[in-house]
Design brief:
Order of helices and strands: HEHEHEHEHEHEEEE
Distance between the termini: 60 Å
Low-confidence stretches: none
CATH class: Alpha Beta
CATH architecture: 3-Layer(aba) Sandwich
CATH superfamily: Vaccinia Virus protein VP39
Strand order of the largest sheet: 3-2-1-4-5-9-6
Mean pLDDT: 91
Shape: globular
Helix content: 25-40%
Largest sheet: 7 strands, mixed
CATH topology: Rossmann fold
Structural class: alpha/beta
């Protein structure tokens, strides 16, 4: 694993810098998610169903004052998140919570932005929406038809951006090179509106 020598000025570290069991938000989708989450200096992210922890880790790396909480129910994956955070220099700013997301969400410190990478349900999205402050951002990824339906419902209720993103990566085919499709991802993101000021 070759860890970058210095912090990048944009998101999207190579996938191979993360220790993972395969449950990893791939580089292109990670950069897209972070663009939608729009981190600003000094903000906190909830990375829910964190898997490898890549979203929360990159969030922290984008500014020295940023913090994240990674919630992951699988203890082995939680250990890898902590290891990745240490390897990539953000262990002091990324807290790992080993718990089911629904059980943990009410115990977390306030978030400026939320990413849901695993455990997506309509109830969870409603709770995330309620937890967001005005101007807070919520982003979710889905790779199943079941979760796609949940994101469609969220889009109809709260608006935002709903996209399906397909990526193809080059790989050898004998002595030639072809393109292999990666799993298509449905991505939904939204910003909680800032109430209009009341004059008078």
């Amino acid at each position: 694993m070759d860890v970058p020598a210095s912090d990048p000025l944009s998101a999207g570290l190579p996938d191979d810098v993360f220790v993972t069991d395969g449950l990893l938000t791939k580089r292109v989708m990670r950069a897209y998610a972070l663009a939608m989450l729009a981190p600003a200096a000094g903000e906190r992210l909830w990375d829910l169903g964190a898997g490898t922890g890549s979203i929360g880790i990159e969030w922290c790396r984008l500014h020295a004052a940023n913090r994240a909480v990674a919630v992951e129910r699988n203890p082995g994956r939680a250990e890898r998140i902590a290891l990745n955070a240490a390897n990539l220099g953000v262990a002091d700013r990324l807290d790992v919570v080993v718990a089911d997301v629904p059980a943990a969400i009410d115990t977390l410190p306030p978030a400026d932005a939320i990413f849901v990478g695993g455990g997506l349900t309509a109830d969870l999205l409603g709770r995330c929406w309620s937890a967001l402050p005005a101007g807070g951002r919520l982003a979710c990824h889905s790779v199943t038809a079941d979760s796609d339906a949940i994101l469609l419902g969220a889009y109809r209720e709260w608006g935002g951006e709903l996209s399906r993103i397909g990526v193809e990566a080059a790989e050898p085919i004998g002595r030639f090179v072809g393109f292999k499709p990666l799993r298509t991802v449905t991505a939904w993101s939204v910003t909680r509106p800032v109430p209009a000021s009341v004059e008078g």
